[in-house]
Design goal:
heterodimer, A: alpha/beta, Rossmann fold, 5-stranded parallel β-sheet, B: alpha/beta, 5 helices, 5 strands, about 40% helix
């Protein structure tokens, strides 16, 4: 159905992440690319100037580890870590990689009275490709 | 993946809701159902009084027949036409018929500068189930 599918991943969404990857696999053409993307929000400068550089490198490694743990079964999944503001970075990455479908969770678990989270809402409005919102 | 998938079809859709049907077939569980729903806008009373009685119902029945003719070839697919407001009727049908995924086009063809049409936007915000927006 789709040649390139993007699954944005947040670490506190575990059950949804697994479902999103499963949906991605169902929609993927044979030989297609399934990309899991995590966006690291920038540390504001008024904070980062007080953090030693080594600390930031260490945090980066921890993020990578958490990302791997979150994905679990990574068979056939490309892992990508980028910096930016989640909504804009996802839409931008999708455009550059010619992604044909984005599979995204509607919001964090537990925020059930929020109909659509801010990131999902931005992605569904601004993406140029199909978007599957998982609830 | 999903037990009951609802495809929202605009009454004036371009021929071949092919992509939506194909996506539905990828996403449905074995033995799952697909319903194609088209919503006929109700005619306001100040216009309806000049029409022959039963005209709206006749339009609805005709829409159902033509939707059936168009999509009838797909196994396990049911075509339904209802009278009402597009987004509200889609949401209502989904809630009352155990739909767990809605597939909808992002907007009418040609309105490409709108990021997300009004119906799709309402459906994606208010649905209680997953929503796949096709672009």
């Amino acid at each position: 159905m789709y040649k390139t599918i993007l699954v944005p991943v947040e670490f506190d969404h575990t059950p949804t992440t697994a479902r999103a990857l499963e949906i991605g696999r169902h929609l993927l053409d044979e030989g297609g690319r399934l990309i899991a993307l995590h966006v690291v929000a920038p540390v504001p400068t008024y904070v980062s100037q007080f953090i030693p550089e080594m600390q930031l490198v260490e945090v980066r490694n921890q993020v990578e580890e958490a990302f791997r743990a979150e994905l679990g079964d990574t068979e056939g999944v490309e892992m990508v870590l980028i910096d930016g503001t989640p909504g804009a970075a996802i839409v931008d990455y999708a455009r550059r990689q010619k992604v044909e479908c984005i599979v995204i969770a509607s919001h964090r678990p537990g925020l059930s009275d929020i109909l659509l989270g801010s990131t999902a809402s931005r992605v569904v409005r601004h993406a140029e490709c199909s978007v599957h919102v998982v609830r | 993946m999903y037990e009951h998938i609802l495809i929202g079809v605009a009454p004036d859709h371009a021929p071949g809701s092919g992509a939506a049907v194909e996506i539905a077939e990828c996403l449905r569980k074995k033995g799952g159902r697909i319903t194609a729903l088209t919503v006929i806008e109700d005619i306001p009373p100040y216009v309806a009084q000049y029409l022959p009685p039963g005209q709206v119902e006749k339009n609805r029945a005709e829409a159902e027949v033509s939707l059936k003719a168009e999509l009838g070839g797909v196994k396990g697919l049911k075509a339904v036409a209802v009278i009402g407001q597009a987004a509200a009727s889609i949401l209502d049908y989904a809630e009352t018929h155990g739909v767990d995924c809605i597939i909808i086009a992002s907007h009418r063809p040609g309105l490409s500068d709108y990021f997300l049409g009004s119906t799709a936007s309402r459906v994606v915000r208010h649905a209680l189930c997953s929503v796949h927006v096709v672009r």
